Amino acid sequence: MPEAMVLYTxxxxxxxALIAWVVxxxxxxxxxxxxxxxxxxxASESAGEGADAAVKxxxxxxxxxxxxxxxxxxxxxxxxAEARAEAESAAAESDEEGAKAxxxxxxxx
Length: 109
What we know:
By secondary structure, the chain is an all-alpha fold. The chain is built from 2 helices and no strands. The protein has a domain at 48-109.
């Protein structure tokens, strides 16, 4: 089966090229592998500051999202209430027109 041999050869070349690309990429990478290991005390201080900032940013983002969500819910509720009021007023108007038409028919008969 010559087709199988060609398939195996092409697969081997592709896998070898992929491995070579990964090795080259890791060797030439600038971050974080090329960075020297920092002093433990300095690293823990900077990590603590970064963590505090991240927590604060997360809280701010969460509060903004919840306020937007509640604003959207209020707008939807207001829109529903307005639509319901318009529908009720339209129904009341049609009932009044129907009653007037019946009254007019009764007078004509």
